[in-house]
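hey can u run this one w/ benzoyl-formic acid bound, need the structure tokens asap thx
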Amino acid sequence: MPSTYRALLTCLALAATAPAALAQETTLRLVSAFAENGIYVVHMQKWINQFNAEGKGTLQINFIGGPKAIPAFEAGNAVKTGVVDMALATGAFYTNVMPEADFLKLTQIPVAEQRRNGAFAAINELWMQKGHMVYLARMVENQPFHLYLNKKVDKPDLTGMKVRITPVYRDFFASLGANNVTMPPGEVYTALERNVVDGYGWPIGGIFDLNWNEKTKYRVDPGFYDAEVSIVMNLDSYKKLTPKQKTFLDKQALALEAMNGFWTSYAKDETARQEKAGIQAIKFDAAGTRAYVDKAYDAGWAGAMKANPDFAKKLKTLTSK
Ligand code: 173
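ok here u go:
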């Protein structure tokens, strides 16, 4: 038998008996709960480009789009049910899947440390059980939330004010006397324009992405909590991967978190940009500042303890400073 012919037969035999062992490329469909032109998607795109370059023949990500494809508050459910394989989302947007998702804003230690001390594993255990999803990587760190206002205050009292919220801010702003109005980011500009709300919660970075700077007069300092924006993945989609694909994905998840240093400088840049845009910082005295932040955490943890005391206690112990 000519050797080339024999080689071809061997090849065919291999292909018939062990198709999974041959080069297998899977494409994962990903949606974002945040706008496509915003910083989170811009940052994630850098990662996806790298992912797809290194993952040729193994694993690819197909970015489907932002909240126009799947509404912000539906992204978590889409991952849970397998409508998409992955999402870039924040826990506050999928409390309809599991209320614990919003607890992650309260963590005070880096995600790298959460991976070392068991917090990350505890999160994954619960996310798999209740959300049918894998918590793959925390993409944003060091982005405290702030209260932005169009009415001046000299103390932390929001009585009589309507404030746009998501679950992130609900308990805290309610404790300050606000009338909370829940809405996804995509509706905030119009709400500000029409004076439907007197202010809103958002992290230190990103208000220029949706032009909210045009409708914002004040930012209350200091910030509180830490914005949690992460990649989550449908559990079945994860289980279907080959060992090689899983190894690649896990490596890429760590590579994404290794890019998180970006957020510290971004927070500084955005603070300066707000000042230049004429947004005034409202600051309290030292005691007022401490009381404000303490109240934020007290209200946040109280809400968490009500929703799931066991997980809240565990998370608080493992991730508080
Ligand atoms: O929409 C929000 O204000 C919100 O909950 C959030 C969470 C994480 C990052 C940015 C915004």
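The pocket of benzoyl-formic acid is lined by residues 90, 92, 166, 168, 185, 201-203, 227, 229 (CB under 6 Å). anyway lmk if its weird
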